[in-house]
From TrEMBL:
Catalysed reaction, written as an equation: 7-carboxy-7-carbaguanine + NH4(+) + 2 ATP = 7-cyano-7-carbaguanine + 2 AMP + 2 diphosphate + 2 H(+)
GO BP annotation list: tRNA queuosine(34) biosynthetic process
Gene3D superfamilies: HUPs
Cofactor info, note text: Binds 1 zinc ion per subunit.
Binding, ATP: 10-20
Gene responsible for this protein: queC
One example GO MF annotation: ligase activity, forming carbon-nitrogen bonds
Annotated protein name in UniProt: 7-cyano-7-deazaguanine synthase
EC number: 6.3.4.20
Pfam families given in the database record: QueC
Purpose: Catalyzes the ATP-dependent conversion of 7-carboxy-7-deazaguanine (CDG) to 7-cyano-7-deazaguanine (preQ(0)).
UniProt record similarity statement: Belongs to the QueC family.
CDD domains, A to Z: QueC-like
Amino acid sequence: MSRKKAVCILSGGMDSSLSSYIAKKEDGYDIIAVHFNYGQRTEKRELKAFRNICEDLDIKEKYEIDIPFFTQIGASALTDKTIEVPTQGVKPGVPITYVPFRNGIFLSIATAIAEKEEAEAIFIGVVEEDSSGYPDCTDSFIEKMTSAINQGTKESTKIKIETPLVKLMKRDIVKRALELNVPLEHTWSCYKEEEEACGVCDSCRLRLNGFKEANAIDPIPYKD
């Protein structure tokens, strides 16, 4: 009897890593890990984190996919070096670090892989309440994408998009990660730096605040 399979979109960040651990350790899926190199500032460091987490979870099936066009369209501080990464804290509205329809594109590619691999689920570590205002991290977006991908695939293909973290706050994510022994020292969240995390971009601020509220110490290095 073949085991059930799930495609996990794994950036190497804390959220996607925890989501992958939940898929394997709690839900019992064999994991096919998918990572995207899309010209983000910390592309090399995120790829290293992805490979480390795959090793930690003993994942054999993995895809490393290049999407160069994000740097062509720019429009995001993550992919356009002429736009500064904001360091003044989270503000109302969609931030300049939003990459246009990134999760929609990621999910579309993951769907093609899931259909080929006959996987029944796609795990993505989106977080609605703590997502810095990204429109492609919401429950309603995921619900509509689920409908679209099942409409646009073979009738025999039935795929669920699983978002185990979508309603959690960052402190809860830290706590769950510690409970599941996720090697957080292997994860990377910083938008700006690859050697030592900057500590001041939106992603670092959310991460550090999550550890603080969870009464835990973040094991990755930060600039003084």
